[in-house]
């Protein structure tokens, strides 16, 4: 079994700005810069043969490169159950289309439909028992985040492997957007 997701990484100029925001919440497990990405579709653990089928479907996705910017921040969870802080993306129809195409590729390869609404974001940290006042202060200090536009010209199929400080991601296949 291999745990897979489709995503694209961010340019260094964008991750450098995000790294300056990775502070201020005691006990947060801030994600390393090389792990920052926007997920298009999480597929979960798959047998190798199913991963091959998925790769075949993803490689057939046609699409054009597009410009994207990060905008705003938020959390997953509520109150004492807040478990992640993230940077969002500005509304972008080509991004939404690409995510839908990844969803269709997953279904064509035999995977169950994703039930959650697509919410593009970059996870900056995972939290456990974070003080709500610290999380609120962090959001207040970062909620006006707006990055310069950057071009998304490829996406990839990534594997996720458990590590001491959180999951480690490895690019398995890359797909170009023309």
Largest sheet: 4 strands, antiparallel
N-end to C-end Cα span: 32 Å
Shape assignment: globular
Q: Into which percent range does the helicity of residues fall?
A: 25-40%
Mean pLDDT: 96
Return the string of H and E elements: EHEEHEEEHEHEEE
Instruction: For the largest sheet, list the strands in their spatial order.
Output: 3-1-9-10
DSSP summary, beta strand count: 10
Count of DSSP H/I helices:
4
**Rg estimate, integer Å:** 16 Å
Taking pLDDT < 50 over at least 5 consecutive residues as the criterion, the unreliable ranges are none
Strand content: 25-35%
Explained architecture:
By secondary structure, this protein is α+β, with helices and mostly antiparallel strands. 26% of the residues lie in helices and 35% in strands. It is built from 4 helices and 10 strands. The strands form 3 sheets. A 4-stranded antiparallel β-sheet has the order 3-1-9-10, with helices on one face. The longest helix is centred in the middle third of the chain and has 16 residues, at 93-108. The radius of gyration is 16 Å and the shape is globular.
